[in-house]
């Protein structure tokens, strides 16, 4: 008999199905892939290393290629713990080149891509892990897998910008 997959995140006290919060819904959609050998987690960073330092109110466009067949599930952008504001204030717009689809009507601020749901805390290193900010639904990568990102620094001072996307990438030696 085949068991219904249950995500270990469903018992996380910080993940609940409240109105306006869709973490529980997307976790249920992704739970079946947690033990599927056809997918592995991969992280993609934008912009590239040579473009990540932006001057005050600087603007950069960059491309990112994600393996077609992969599923994008969220962003790993940190927040400052006491104030719950983004560590790196900037705006971003993502365009799926294969579909000609922009993800948002207007570029959005990183406050909408950050998440402060601690998963662990180390007193030795004064460090804390955080769960990703999940998209409202898994985003399948189709066509060429090419994405264009437009990023603008908004704090008014030079900073290093790193935005990390989490994806379930298709394994070449899966089933």
Architecture (CATH level 2) name? Sandwich
* CATH class type: Mainly Beta
H and E string: HEEEEEEEEEEEEE
Biggest sheet character: 5 strands, antiparallel
The secondary-structure class comes to: mainly beta
How many DSSP-defined strands?
13
Query: How many H/I helical runs?
Result: 1
Query: What proportion strand?
Result: 35-45%
Q: Please, what is the oligomeric state?
A: single chain
Question: Mean of the pLDDT scores?
Answer: 79
Description:
With 175 residues, the chain is mainly β. It has one domain: Jelly Rolls (Sandwich). It has one helix and 13 strands; from the N terminus they run H-E-E-E-E-E-E-E-E-E-E-E-E-E. The strands form four sheets. Strands 3, 5, 6, 7 and 11 form a five-stranded antiparallel sheet that branches. It starts with 22 loop residues before the first helix and ends in a 5-residue tail after the last strand. The mean pLDDT is 79.
Per-chain topology:
Elements: H1 23-30, E1 39-46, E2 53-54, E3 59-65, E4 71-75, E5 90-96, E6 101-102, E7 108-109, E8 118-122, E9 127-130, E10 133-140, E11 146-153, E12 159-160, E13 163-170
Antiparallel strand pairs: 1-13, 2-12, 3-11, 4-10, 4-13, 5-6, 5-7, 5-11, 8-9
Attribute tags:
175 residues, mainly beta, Jelly Rolls, 4-stranded antiparallel beta sheet, 1 helix, 39% strand
Q: How would you summarize what this structure contains?
A:
With 175 residues, the protein is mostly beta strands.
């Amino acid at each position: 008999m085949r068991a219904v997959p249950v995500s270990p995140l469903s018992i996380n006290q910080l993940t609940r199905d409240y109105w306006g919060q869709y973490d529980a819904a997307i976790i249920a959609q992704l739970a079946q892939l947690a033990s599927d050998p056809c997918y592995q987690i991969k992280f993609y960073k934008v912009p590239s290393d040579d473009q990540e330092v932006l001057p005050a109110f600087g603007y950069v466009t960059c491309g990112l290629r994600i393996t077609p067949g992969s599923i994008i599930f969220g962003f790993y952008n940190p927040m400052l713990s006491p104030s719950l504001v983004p560590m790196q204030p900037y705006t971003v717009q993502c365009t799926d080149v294969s579909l000609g689809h922009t993800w948002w009507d207007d570029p959005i601020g990183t406050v909408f891509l950050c998440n402060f749901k601690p998963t662990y805390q180390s007193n030795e290193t004064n460090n804390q892990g955080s769960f990703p900010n999940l998209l409202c639904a898994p985003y399948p990568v189709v066509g060429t897998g090419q994405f264009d990102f437009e990023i603008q620094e908004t704090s008014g001072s030079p900073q290093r910008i790193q935005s990390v996307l989490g994806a379930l990438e298709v394994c070449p030696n899966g089933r």
